[in-house]
């Protein structure tokens, strides 16, 4: 299956689209304003020691000095003496660092307000499956990998890559990873760390030794070992940066890079821009005439399948089965495209045949097999729902691109015109009882104002007779449907 990466770069945003067989499969978005410095490695200079706080301020070249606490200085770093390496309980900051000393540190927390960045000397370098630990000599395995057999398999595969440079932590995402994938990750991280060491040796003053990779570089790092045919970048500057990165760390991808100079925007290729817009819709049309309804909530994501206009050619059971099978492929695509994670509940159309239910589960498993994110399908529940989970790796595309609706305040619905009209009438009654007024003016949205002058006019007239005062209605074009004001005159 042909695969291609499209990288769209602007000064404010970078977007990456994965195209497989001409169809959009994944979208990654990073906004420049939200990029922090967590993960960056610096050669800094200790500018001040605070014995009372057991901490030091380190100048790493930022506007504010960064903060390093004694508890964040680990024994295997070069700033701790050989004697101290044998005494893990030593925590006197004055013995650990001295003013004017150069020290290699990593940012663990971005600067906030008047506070500088938080630092550690416990350097780690992450990749897709592994985390490299300079100076360590062992292999750790994520506690979230529960299978003892899988833990032992992964540990046996990674242990040979430990040497004098350091050891590794095997990440949760490595569950099921192949020997080749792990080897490529280990090799990438070692090349990265050697580059950090080279820069540290060459640098004579404070400097950046490693900047947390931008989106384009991270994606290429994660796609090492996958079958990519082409990588198109629409920015000459980004293309040069990516090319330099691949030459140093992932040379197998260098020949696949292309600087895109076409007349049309790069995301107009393969209808990518429109596909991203459609990925924000609740309703997903199926080719047969059926459709999915996808609702993302804080607790879980629910997916409902409907036959819609699909009537089939044989009988109802066959129609339902075919719709469900088609839905499995659409669901797998939407989960990747929207990057939906956590608990996912799928409400397939009810099937009487146990064989059909099993084949639907098999079809879903097969459709999800190309997903790079770990999924787990628990099968049908007693209520006929399919429970599954998908590992959360980043924010969903909806959470990145969208915010709460200011009209409905995130409810997803607005009050009907009729409901708002009755609220207006109750508010007039309440205000009339509480205050003295000669008459009232109601400011409301055009739809509500029209209703009060039209189909609800009799209710308003009765209220005027009841309170013995005139009520004037005025439309405010800028008001939302739920918004209104009752003003005393």
Automatic annotation (TrEMBL):
Its cofactor is Mg(2+). It is found in: Cytoplasm. Keywords: Cytoplasm, Endonuclease, Hydrolase, Magnesium, Metal-binding, Nuclease, RNA-binding, rRNA processing, rRNA-binding, tRNA processing, tRNA-binding. One of its GO terms (biological process) is rRNA processing. GO terms for molecular function: endonuclease activity; hydrolase activity; metal ion binding; RNA nuclease activity; rRNA binding; tRNA binding. Its main location: cytoplasm. Coiled coil: none annotated. The keyword rRNA-binding applies. Pfam families: RNase_E_G, RNase_E_G_Thio. It comes from the Bacteria. PROSITE patterns: S1 (PS50126). Residues 39-128 form the S1 motif domain. One of its GO terms (cellular component) is cytoplasm. Belongs to the RNase E/G family. RNase G subfamily. This is Ribonuclease G. It comes from Veronia pacifica.
